[in-house]
Amino acid sequence: MDKRLIIIASVLVNIFIGFGLVIPVMPMMVEEAGAAPFHLGMMLSIYSAVSFVVSPLWGALSDRIGRRPVIMSGLFGFSISFFLFGISGDNLWLMYISRILGGIFSGAATSSAIAYIADITTDEERTKAMGLAGASIGLGFIFGPAMGGLLSVFGYATPYFASSVLSLINLFFAMKMLEESLSPEKRAETRTKEKTSRWAAFSGALKYLYLLSFFVTFTLAGLESTLQYFEVKKIQATSLEIGIMFAISGIVGAVIQGGVVRKLVKKGQEGRTIMIGLIVSGLGFLLIIFSADFWTATLFVAIFGAGNALIRPCVTSLITQKTTVGQGVASGLISSMDSLGRIAGPLLGTALFQVDIRLPFVSGGLLSFAAITLLIGFYASTRRESTLAGEN
Asked: CA-CA distance, 224 to 327, in Å (whole number)?
């Protein structure tokens, strides 16, 4: 395997370990600071909100100055942000500053890493490479909460320091082994162009794929924010059992993205794979309602995870194949859509849960099925654009 892909995969694992490890320890740190639960929700949301705003800006900057310096800056800043949270103690404002910095620099590393993959792969190779990226993100989500929980026995700040050190280790290897993927000619060409807004990417047929990217993350985040509450009421699940459910689902997703998508899905087959993924994830959502015990609940969550894993790398691959505004801008907008989904998903999920505990999963299933219309819209719009181009 290309060593550059290994480094990029490591960067993505690092970022998403950092995203997940806060889940078991941040509530205790906020409580020790004497803050209301409202602040916990704000800190979780502000990270994604800031990342949503800055990801396209970092992506566009990487088009102009290269991927490598932006990835390096992202890793260094990410390390600083976790160190600050680790030393925050009962200083609530330092916690907020840390989360804002984390959102800023995670957006830099993630959007530039995805653009880097697009730079070094051909159209034929790209779906496989995006599958590797998706598997790396999945591994980060699996090991993040586990790492946070295990290291918390040495103190609630320990996971933050560990993540900070991990980012610096990644930075060291990236500096040594990661060469620039964007040639000086490509960068010069970008600098002579007018600055491209993220909304320039959100146009034509591709807008359907960006919306699809949002819905995938939106429904996933809604599930993550309500599954524990639901299963506690439904089958009296413990926190350990919920953790095992997420871990198994994450492993299934990582295997599918790193194995099935990366090795079996070829160029031109992405649309069919996305369709299958939407149907499977929609069924998984609805099946969760019928959880009868730990094993059935785990199976249904894993079915959802399998469907979800089929969608993301194929959507990303299609966008990077079709974009006309630069890989950095396109990848930045993908990251922004993911961030927006992580902001809005938990808000709607928890609101629906207050009405009826089944509603988050019913709505998630229906939205998954409805998202098929976005895929149909993408291909219909692509055909119209090809017809118009042929006439001209």
From this structure: 30
Is pLDDT of 53 > 90?
Answer: no
Question: Quick count: other Cβ atoms within 10 Å of Cβ 251?
Answer: 15
Write out the two tokens for 307: 């469907």
Taking 60 as the threshold, does the pLDDT of residue 236 lie above it?
A: yes
Give the C-alpha distances (Å, rounded to integers) separating 79 from 20, 30, 91, 152, 376. 15, 20, 19, 18, 42
User: CB 9: neighbour CB atoms within 10 A?
Assistant: 22
Give, as one character, the DSSP assignment of residue 289.
Answer: T
DSSP assignment of 17-40, as one string? HHHHHHHHHHHHHHHHTT--HHHH
Q: At 264, phi and psi to the nearest 5? A: -110, -30
Q: DSSP characters for 225-244?
A: HHHHHHHHHHH---HHHHHH
Which residue from 8, 21, 12 is spatially nearest to 162, judged by alpha carbons?
A: 21
Contacts of 212 (CB under 8 A, 6+ apart): 274, 311, 315, 371, 374, 375, 378
pTM for the complete prediction?
0.69
Q: What is the pLDDT of residue 114?
A: 82
What distance separates the 2 farthest-apart alpha carbons in the chain?
Answer: 68
Q: What is the rounded distance in angstroms from the CA atom of residue 347 to the CA atom of residue 330?
A: 26
- 154 DSSP assignment: G
At residue 390 the predicted structure's pLDDT band, cuts being 50, 70 and 90, is: low
Q: Are 164 and 83 contacting, i.e. CB atoms less than 8 angstroms apart?
A: yes
